[in-house]
Every structure is written in C-alpha cells, then in structure tokens.
Design a protein that fits this description.
The complex is a heterodimer.
Chain A lengths: L15 H9 L3 H23 L2 H17 L10 H27 L2 H6 L11 H13 L3 H12 L4 H8 L3 H18 L1 H8 L1
Chain B lengths: L2 H15 L12 H12 L1 H4 L2 H32 L24 H22 L6 H19 L6 H19 L7 H16 L1 H14 L1
Helix pairs in contact in B: 5-6, 5-9, 6-7, 7-8, 7-9
The chains are: A mainly alpha, B mainly alpha.
Chain lengths: ~200, ~220
C-alpha cells in the first residue's frame, strides 16, 4: 500500500531545546511555539484514533497539558515529537478504553451483524466498503489499529512508530502485516467479487 | 499478485484513507485548544512579579483589616456575652482562635454573590461589544480577590478551592475581553459561556454564597 506524506520528520524547523528551556523558565510564548509546531499532527492522530472531533480536541489538550506539566522530565534522549506522540497514544488509548466501554453498551445487534459478511451479492459500492472497512478497523486489536493508522493513514515510518510505541521495528512491521491480513479476511467477500 | 488482488488493494487503500478522516489544518480548533491548554498548564507561571507583590501587599492589608475587626468584635463580645457563653469561633481547624473564620464569612459571601452577579450580567454587558470600564474594573477587582482567597485559608477547603480556581479561570478570560477585538471577542465570550455552563460556576457560586452567609 502507498502512504500519505505525514511523518515526524516534517516537524517545522524550530530550535526545540531552546524553546523547551524557555518553557521551563515560564515563557508561555515558547510554549505556544512548541504547540504550533506539533499540535496539528497530534490532533490529526487523535482524530484518526477516535473519529470524533470533540474527543480529538479533548485528547490533544490533555496531551499538551501533560507534556508541559512534565516537561522537566523530558531528557532529550528522543526527539520532542516522539515524546509528545507517546503521550498522545497513552492519553488516547487510556481514555478510549472508557469511551469504548460506554459505546459497547449502546451498540445494538444490528451493528454487531454488520461486522460479519452478508451474502446479498450487491455490495460493490464504495460507501458500503468504507463502512465495512471502518467497522473492521474498529474491531482490530488496539495495538494493530494504532500501527495501521500511523503507518497507512498518517505516513509515519516504521522507525518512528517503533520509537513512539517503544517496540522493535520488526514488531511494528509484523503488527502492520497482521492488521492488513485481518482486514482482508474481514472483507474477503469483497475481494471475491473482484476476482470473479 | 493478481490484477484483481491489486485492484482490491487499491480500493482498500482509498477506503483506508477515508477512515476517521481529520479536518484540514485550517479547520482545526487550534486557538480554542491553546486557550484551554494555556489556562491549565501556565496559570501559575502567568503571574508576574508585580502581580505577586501586589498579592502579598493586598494580603497584608486584608490581614490587618481582619485583625482590627476581630479585636473590635472581640471587645464587644466580651462586654456583652455572659461568662459561660461557649467559644464557637474555632470551628475551622486551621484558623487560630485569635482570628475567627466567621469574621471573614460575610465578606466571602458578599464577594461570591458579586462574582455571580458579574457573570450573570456579562452576556448583556458584552452584547453591544466590549463591556464598559466600570464592569471591567469590577472584574479585575474580583479576580484580585479570587487570587487572594486562593492564597488564604479559604483556599484550604477543597470544594472552595475548586470553585475559586474555576472562577479565576473565567475571570481571567473576562478581563482579557478588554484587549480582544471582534470576532475573537465573540469567540472568547462563547468560550466563557461554555466554561460557565460546563462547570456550573454560577449555581456553585450562589450555593457557596448562601452557605457562607448561613454559617
């Protein structure tokens, strides 16, 4: 699969160590500069992971509040962008567990049926595929889903994802491969239509 | 890989890109998010040295005032009350007996009522544009008092502290209105209203005011 060009290395050219030192000294304008440099990508990722504008907004805010409050703990071993993306993933994953529990209670049987193939034979339309795919992605194990979203949708490299998630690159690749395989399996009836 | 497999992969890829597709950078609520982040991550750092000195000075003035009031009331009580009257002023554990907390309650109650009144009046005041000078002056005074109370014994009560912190954030936004221009002033007003609604600030202020008044 091809990839869109959004990755950590696209961070605007700012002198981050200096900005971080200024933020630690209480300079909120420096805080704003750091925010400007990273907020759009953090928001994009939060939006992809949640699919909800309000949640993405809340989690982006939470990410930056935590980052600024814990900035003294940032030792510069990794890039600031890696560090803040780690916080984003933690914030979103923790909060989404609660959100999902609430949503699961609201999910009715019709929604559950939609996760499984229906053999009506007339589902070549893109909206149907999109809808089925979205449900299949939602049903992926969270760590597969995060890897798939970061790599195939937001264009992070395996090295970047591995840094953010704290795993080996090989693990990252195998997770992505497994995620894609699960999607293909979930949409097997669509694939058959293309083969026929 | 077969052609049909490739075609399906392409289709899958297109569908993947549409999954939870985020808005473009221009549509992101970056300003609104920053305001919230700034309020939570930088409130303590925003106070200038001047403001800190002002707080200390104002705290001293209020302290002296309370002390004088206590002495005057103490003298009246000693003159009027029988010797067997129990001393009830030391209900709050952290307050020394020489400076009974109830002396501050009418002031606190009045301040909470004034803050509620100001916030209730805000939409009407701001409907024609920027609120007028006396209104902004009042907001500034209330903000100063809020910060003083946060630094005082009133700030030791968790519920009161929570209310005062919410109030401080809202008042900071109100005070900032005088520097904002349209249309950001309108946005700021909406954010204030949201903050008031989400945190139930006005009902909590009224409730706290009546509790303090009833003490």
């Amino acid at each position: 699969m091809t990839r869109t060009a959004f990755a950590l290395q696209t961070t605007p050219q700012v002198n981050e160590p200096e900005l971080i030192a200024r933020v630690l000294a209480g300079d909120r304008l420096a805080g704003r500069e750091l925010y400007n440099a990273h907020a759009p990508r953090v928001f994009r990722l939060a939006y992809r992971l949640t699919g909800d504008a309000e949640l993405a907004r809340e989690f982006t805010q939470d990410t930056f509040v935590r980052a600024f409050q814990r900035l003294a703990d940032f030792r510069g071993d990794a890039a600031f962008s890696t560090w803040i993306h780690r916080i984003t993933i933690t914030v979103v994953a923790n909060a989404m567990r609660k959100v999902r529990r609430l949503r699961e209670r609201e999910t009715d049987l019709a929604d559950l049926d939609a996760l499984h193939p229906v053999h009506s034979g007339t589902r070549r339309l893109d909206p149907d595929l999109r809808d089925r795919l979205a449900k299949a992605i939602d049903a992926l194990p969270e760590i597969y889903r995060i890897t798939l979203i970061m790599h195939d949708m937001e264009g992070y490299t395996h090295t970047e994802i591995a840094d953010v998630l704290g795993v080996a690159e090989g693990t990252c690749k195998s997770r992505l491969s497994a995620a894609r395989a699960q999607l293909r399996a979930a949409l097997a009836d669509f694939a058959k239509e293309y083969e026929s | 890989m077969t052609d049909s497999h490739d075609r399906f992969d392409e289709l899958l890829h297109d569908a993947l890109r549409s999954y939870n597709h985020p808005p473009g950078d221009r549509e992101m609520p970056l300003e609104d998010m920053w305001r919230s982040i700034e309020g939570q991550a930088f409130p303590a750092r925003r106070a200038s040295r001047y403001a800190q000195w002002l707080r200390i000075a104002a705290a001293l003035v209020i302290g002296v005032g309370i002390g004088r009031l206590s002495l005057a009331r103490g003298a009246q009580t000693r003159a009027a009350a029988p010797a067997t009257t129990p001393v009830t002023v030391a209900q709050r554990p952290s307050v020394p007996a020489e400076q009974p907390a109830p002396q501050l309650d009418p002031t606190t109650s009045r301040y909470l009522g004034q803050a509620a009144a100001l916030l209730i009046a805000l939409p009407a005041e701001a409907s024609g544009g920027r609120p007028d000078q006396p209104f902004m002056k009042r907001a500034n005074e209330l903000l100063l008092t809020t910060r003083l109370l946060l630094d005082s014994q009133s700030g030791n009560d968790p519920a009161m502290r929570n209310l005062l912190e919410d109030l401080e954030l809202v008042l900071v936004q109100v005070v900032r209105l005088q520097k904002e221009r349209e249309p950001s002033r309108r946005t700021e007003l909406e954010l204030i209203q949201q903050a008031l609604d989400q945190r139930d600030v006005i009902p909590r202020l009224r409730s706290a005011a009546s509790e303090y008044a009833a003490d």
